[in-house]
C-alpha cells in the first residue's frame, strides 16, 4: 500500500474536510432553493397570472431551481472528491479539480450577473406589475384581481406604488389593503412592487454569503486536490524507480 509523507497526509485530510464542508453547503443551497420554491410569498409573488405578464418574472422564478440543481451537483461532486482522497486515485483528483474549477467560475458569473441586474429587475417588475394591475381592474378580470389581492394580503401592501393606484383605475380600495381585512383598520402604506422586490433582495445576502463561502472553500479544494494528485504521482514514480 502506498505510504505518503506527513505533509501529503495532511493535504489529504484537508481535502476530506473541505469536501465535507462542500457537502454541508451543498445541502444549504439545496435547502434554500427548496425554501424559495415552497415559500408562500415566493409562490404568490410569481403566480401564473402575474409572472406570465411581468418582464423578468421568469428570471426570478428560476433562481430557486438553479439553487436546487447547484446544491445537488455540489453534494455529488463533493462525494466524488472524498473518494479520490480516500482511495488516492489521481484520475479522480484531477477530474475533481477540473470540474470544481468550472463550477466555481459558473457560480461566480451567475452571482455577478444577478447582482448587476438588480435595478433592471426592480424597474421591470414594477412596470410589469402596473400593467397587470391596470389590466385587471380595467377589464374586471376576476382571476387577476384575485392574484393582486393575494399579493396585498401576503406582503401587507396596497396597489403597485400605494393605495392611490385604485383611484387611477376608478376602483374602491379593497379589504385586502387593510390590516386584518377590516375597513376600520389602517391601509397598508407600502406598494406591492416595493414590498415584493425588497423581500427578494432581503434573501440575496443569504445566497451571496453561501455562494461566497462555497467559492472560497472551492479554491482551497482545487489547490489541495491538485497538490495531492501531484504528490501521489511523485511517490508512485519514486516507488517504481526504487524497484528498478
UniProtKB/TrEMBL annotation:
The organism of origin for this protein: Rotaria sordida
Disulfide bridge partners, by residue number: 157-192, 158-177
Gene3D superfamilies named among the record's database cross-references: Tetraspanin
InterPro entries, A to Z: Tetraspanin/Peripherin, Tetraspanin_animals, Tetraspanin_EC2_sf
Domain of life (superkingdom): Eukaryota
Keyword terms: Disulfide bond, Membrane, Transmembrane, Transmembrane helix
Main location per the UniProt record: membrane
Signal sequence range: none
Coiled coil spans: none
Membrane spanning stretches: 12-38, 59-87, 93-112, 206-232
Cellular compartments annotated: Membrane
UniProt record similarity statement: Belongs to the tetraspanin (TM4SF) family.
Name of the protein in its database record: Tetraspanin
CC per GO annotation: membrane
Membrane topology: Multi-pass membrane protein
